[in-house]
Amino acid sequence: MLNTPSDSLTPRHSVVFHTLLAFVVIIAVSVLSLLGNLYMAEALGGDAAAINQAGSLRMQSYRLALTASQNDPQLLQAHLNQLDETLTSSALRSTVRRHPDSSLPAHYAEILEHWSQVMRPRLATQPPRLELYRNELDSFTSELDRFVSNLQLASERKLGVIRVLQVGTLFIIVLIAFLLIYRLHNNLASPLRALTAMARQIGGGNFNSRVQVAGDTELSLLARTLNQMSQELAELYAEMEQKVSDKTAELRRSNASLHLLFNGARMLYSKPEDPAQMMGQLLEKVQQTLGSGPVSLCLNRPGEVGSHTAMSSLDLLPPYYCNLPQCDNCPAHSNQGLLANGNRLIGFELRSGNSELGALRVEHPAEQALEPWQEQLMTTLADLFAASLSLASQSDQQARLALMEERAVIARELHDSLAQALSAQKLQVARFKRLAARGADTDTLNATAGEIEQGLNAAYRQLRELLTTFRIKVNAPGLKPALLATVDEFSSNSGLLIHFHYQLDHCPLSPNEEIHCLQVIREALSNVLKHAKASQCWLNLYQDRSGTIQIQIEDNGIGIDTDVSPSGHYGLTILRERAEGLHGSVSIDTGDKGGARIWLSFPPAYRRIPLKQESNNNE
Question: PANTHER family, from UniProt (predicted)?
Fold first, then answer.
């Protein structure tokens, strides 16, 4: 915004005013000259008539001499009257009056006197005195000739005045026009060319040009205003360039920070089992992005004192000031982080909840502070590293828990099936020994031996079933691929036609739920093959309106009379235990196809709300 003083807005010498004034003067001079010429022309018009009449007096004088010689008094009187009228005409009188300072009035008076006193009386008598008139005629005509000459001289003087007036007017107009052109060239044309050239330069982005216009006119005011505007535009342009440069640098820093964070997150989550190695590879890039000193990383074990890993962005080795495992002497914990080289260690803790996982440190000049974007980047990186370490620790813990749970499941399965079968056969062997010691007959011993053999076969079958169950793999995500493989396995090995209907594509099940469902279905299909004597089987999985998972295994076999496992068979018992593990229930009845129907229902984990959380929300 231009800051121009108000008193400088009005020029003292206006080019427009002076130009208009020059044109007014030219017009005024031209009008005056025209009026003067008109007046002189009007005066010359009367002089011409007077000269003509004065010249006719000479002719009339000679005509009177001729008329007097003809003895015609009337004609002579008429010519005398005509000469009187011509001599006293208004044209001559007005011409004589317009020249009072000349000799014309006196000369005209002499001619009147000479005519009235001498020339006319000689012709007015009867008879006319013609000879005396003729003797005086030459003198009278000489006077008339002089009078006409004087009239011509007077007229010529008027023409001279007209010429002088015209030449003077032309000179004045030319002089004023020259001065006007000169001033317009100096005060208008040249400044306008300079201002136009400056405007082009401003339009082209060059704000360094200046125009100097002398005087105090409109154009000098415009030049000063343009100079001030160009200066302010140059300052604004420089300021804008600086702001654009700053914003560009800020955007580049933000882009570099986002790129670093994105690549860091991708690297850390691509190998979550070993985040420390990935963090070490990122330290050099962190230092380049920050534009600061070396960046170091120290990692702790939760619940322990001191660091177990330290690395620097220079060579992925512990920093030169590091004294692992004597972390109490670390400069980061004393003297406000000052180092021997004058730099200061600025640390950012890696925390996960209440656990301190380590620290991310950067060397920076002691007299300088980190910029806000640098602190934000380091804080975000520290949070990212802490989250990665926490996830890795949780993954290890979950792996250990899963291994322990798997071992507990194996132990439970062995205890509930094979251990009980072997324990029963152990009792049968003790009974066989007692019978043999008592000397029992051969039939009794053979019967007991057959029961032992039958029990061992059953135990062997259970062992094979357990091995098959423990070898189940769910390679593809979801339950459906594993069930398809199971249906294909049972159909191809037994010839049983299995109708499979799966309607749980939009129901997320946990891995534990998928394993239990798969084991229940395999156990049910195994029972169909062993006991049902069926040719077809229907397997339906769906979710009802309440969100409960429903699994139905139905066959067209001989059916079942009871839901209690016969002696030595634990399939139904295992089904109930697995249903309880899913927080559900299992029922066995007669199906619509005439055979047995096993019905498993349980609420999925994602639909169950913990009671503790629910009570807290109610509070």
Answer: NITRATE/NITRITE SENSOR PROTEIN NARX-RELATED, NITRATE_NITRITE SENSOR PROTEIN NARQ
